[in-house]
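Sanity check

After download, print the first record. It should look like this:
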Amino acid sequence: MRILLDSNVYEEVRSDSVLSDNLEELRRILEDAGIQLDPRTLSLDVLGDIADSYDFIITENRDIHKASNKLNIIDKMLLVDEALQIFRGY
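Expected C-alpha cells:
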C-alpha cells in the first residue's frame, strides 16, 4: 500500500497540537503495519498526475479535497483525522 502525505501538513501541525498528536499516532500505526508514508509537497497542479501512484493521499488542504472530487479521486483523499480512524483498525 502506498500513501502520500502532503508535506504541507507539517506546517499545519505546528499550530495545532491535536493534529500533531494525531499525525504522530497515524505514523506509528502505519509504521507498525509496515506501511510507509511518502511525504511530498502536494499542489493542485500535480494532483491528477500522481493520484494513480497512491492508494491514499493525506492532506489538510481543503482546495485539494475539492479538486479531487472533480478528478474522481475523492475516495483516495483523507484528512489526518480520517486516516487515523481508518488505520486504527490495522
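If your output differs, re-run the checksum step. Summary of this record's structure: The mean pLDDT is 91.
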